[in-house]
Amino acid sequence: MWGGINSSSEQPNSNKSSANECVSVSVIFPVTMMVTGIVGNTLALLLVYRSYHKKENKRKRSFLLIIGALALTDLTGKLLTSPVVISVYVSNRQWSRVDPSGNLCAFFGVCMTTFGLCPLFLAGAMAIERTLAIHAPQYYSNHMTTRLTKLVVLSIWLCVMIFALLPIAGVGRYTLQWPGTWCFINTGNHILGNTIFASTFTVLGITSLLVTVSCNVATIRGLVVRCKKKLSSNKQLERITVETLMQLMGIMCVLCVCWSPLLILMSKMIYTESSSDHCYKPPPDKSSSQSGELQTDCNFLLTAIRLASLNQILDPWVYLLLREILLRKVCQVANAVTNCSVEGFKEIPVTVEARQHLKEQIT
Question: The CATH number of the domain where 118 resides is what?
Fold first, then answer.
């Protein structure tokens, strides 16, 4: 059924002595991440749905559509992958008990690739949308329609799904990864198809990060310039500008912290043509110090994938839920950075009309 995939007989079994050395291996992690991910993204979807159908938010619908697509993607990813991981932990980390045919490993790998790249691409699309709104307001007003936004979102989902299914055609391979509780792209075995597939995933991920960071920096710069020019003396508008700056900086920090370790580690593994196979049984010719270094690398791989998964949990909080809460705590810091006066901020309520007014100012 799944071409280019390791069967269960080819997958290494978890070595208990090695697994015990990884003190971070615990079912608590996937359970906690699943619950928090489901709650956060569900709340985000409810908020987006409510905001999308308000008449005063008509001009923000493209932005809300992308946020909703991001929350839906993250929620679906958690619902499809977390139960599998928890089941493997319950089975004493013996993947073969849960997936004797090997098909589940292939499905899990497809999900990891799809719901890993989609949020990165959607974040990039959102960053581009904000940059156009600030730096090309006329073009944005004339061309950024909800129909175009829906087409972009659907194209991202479809293209990433096609890419994730390439191992079926023999390009790339999904294999069991340390500590035997998840499957992902194989970076070793000196096979050209594996190298091409893994390299493409890494390049796409890094490119998405660079696009997101570059566009957000450009948007922040545009907002700061407008703020310094004192386009409006309305304190509410200045407050919203500071809020937007904080949100964009938070997005960049979360994306870089969550995804950089995994993408860097994958680049290293591709370059050295190595994989996580040695994590189960270190080579006998290695010294104790070298074996310790290998074990450290294995644990770092597990930490890196958990950080990438953490992005699915943090996305809704960064984009929606903590936006106003965080502003009230650190508005003074943001004031020092942007040189925007927020005097009297605490007495100014947050209103939809103020947000709409700012939108009209910049578009």
Answer: 1.20.1070.10
How many other CB atoms are there within 10 angstroms of residue 325's CB atom? 9
- SS3 label, residue 27: coil
CA nearest to 19, candidates 285, 357, 281: 281
For residue 160, the enclosing domain spans 19-362
Residue 357, domain member (yes or no):
yes
For 50-81, write each residue's pLDDT tens digit.
888 876 666 678 888 888 999 999 999 999 99
CA distance 48 to 126: 15
User: Token pair for residue 166?
Assistant: 């390439």
- Assigned domain for 8 exists: no
Domain count, the chain: 1
> Read out DSSP for 37-96?
HHHHHHHHHHHHHHHHT-GGGGGGHHHHHHHHHHHHHHHHHHHHHHHHHHHHHHTTT-HH
Identity of the amino acid at 153: V
Maximal CA-CA distance, the chain: 72
- From the list 255, 269, 264, the residue with the least C-alpha distance to 310 is 255
Query: Dihedral of the CA atoms 78, 300, 114, 50 (nearest 10)?
Result: 40
pLDDT, one tens digit per residue, over 273-330 is 777 766 765 555 555 555 556 667 777 888 898 899 888 888 888 876 655 555 555 5
Of 185-189, 242-246, 357-361, which gets the smallest average pLDDT? 357-361
Query: What DSSP element (H or E) covers 183?
Result: strand 182-185
